[in-house]
Amino acid sequence: MSEKRSAIEACAADQWHTLPSGLTVIVRPMPGYSCTHAILATRFGSIDRYFRVGEKEIRLPAGVAHFLEHKMFEDEDGDAFAKFARTGANANAFTSFDRTCYLFTATEQVDESLDVLLGMIAHPYFTPETIAKEQGIIGQEIKMYDDSPDWRLMTGLFEGMYHSHPIRSDIAGTCESIAEITPEMLYDCCRAFYAPGNLVLAVAGNVTMDQVLAACGRSGLAEPRPAETPRRLWDEEPLTLAQPEQTLTMAVSKPCFGIGFKEEPLPSGDLRTEALYDLVCSCICGGMSPLYRRLYDAGLVNPDFGGAVLRVDGCCCFLFTGESEHPDQVRDLLLAEIERVRAAGVDEEIFTLCKNEKYGQLIENLENVEDSASQMADFALAGQTVAQQIGMLAGLTAADANRALETIFRPERMAFIKILPDGSACAEDADQMEVEE
Question: In what residue span(s) does the Peptidase M16 C-terminal domain sit (predicted)?
Answer without folding.
Answer: 181-356
